[in-house]
UniProtKB/TrEMBL annotation:
Domain AdoMet activation: residue ranges: 1-167
Descriptive protein name: AdoMet activation domain-containing protein
This protein's GO CC annotations: cytosol
GO MF annotations in UniProt: metal ion binding; methionine synthase activity
Source organism of this protein record: Actinobacteria bacterium BACL2 MAG-121220-bin52
Cited Gene3D superfamilies: Vitamin B12-dependent methionine synthase, activation domain (3.10.196.10)
Keywords: Cobalt, Metal-binding, Methyltransferase, Transferase
Source taxonomy: Bacteria, Bacillati, Actinomycetota, Actinomycetes, Actinomycetes incertae sedis
Domain of life the protein comes from: Bacteria
Matches recorded under Pfam families: Met_synt_B12
GO term, biological process aspect, one: methylation
Length: 167
């Protein structure tokens, strides 16, 4: 049964894409699946970067901050790969790193606030669904995840789902 409903904008030009195009319609009577995730590096790294910044240790701050942001992205990609594997699509993944970095796999991972799903307010629904406070992640009044080194996504498994700008 339907627990939540997300709405997404449709492109006004180009292919007139919308994220919902990549899912079976409710009227089809067919069941489809969608995955969501929230990942984080946790509060410790945010505290460490804040301490470095406050101590005017800017180089160390920038290095640790940059590393932690990239590790968050790597963790998100790890779970995206795991989801593709559990859905039986891992064999579609490229073995070449350059192709993986260019979406050489089935589907895409879309984060709210980015071009295909620009409504950052949808984070509220995602958080209702996933309860990220269980892993120490909170949603601010501005719909930002805290700690900063956290990210969320809707994972679309359709083979034609690639990044696009809905604006």
């Amino acid at each position: 049964s339907e627990r939540l409903r997300f709405t997404f904008p449709r492109q006004r030009r180009d292919r007139r894409l919308c994220l919902s195009d990549f899912f079976k319609s409710k009227d089809s009577g067919q069941i489809d699946v969608v995955a969501f995730h929230v990942v984080t590096m946790g509060q410790s790294v945010s505290q460490a970067t804040a301490k470095l910044f406050a101590a005017n240790e800017y180089r160390e701050y920038l290095e640790l901050h940059g590393l932690s942001v990239q590790l968050t992205e790597a963790l998100a990609e790890h779970w995206h790969a795991r989801i593709r594997s559990e859905l039986g699509f891992a064999s579609d993944d490229s073995n070449e790193l350059s192709e993986i970095l260019d979406q050489g796999y089935r589907g895409s991972r879309y984060s709210f606030g980015y071009p295909a799903c620009p409504d950052l307010g949808a984070q509220v629904q995602l958080c209702e669904l996933l309860e990220p406070d269980r892993i120490g992640v909170e949603l601010s009044d501005e719909f930002q995840l805290h700690p900063e080194q956290s990210t969320s996504a809707i994972i679309v498994h359709h083979p034609e789902a690639k990044y696009f700008n809905a604006n």
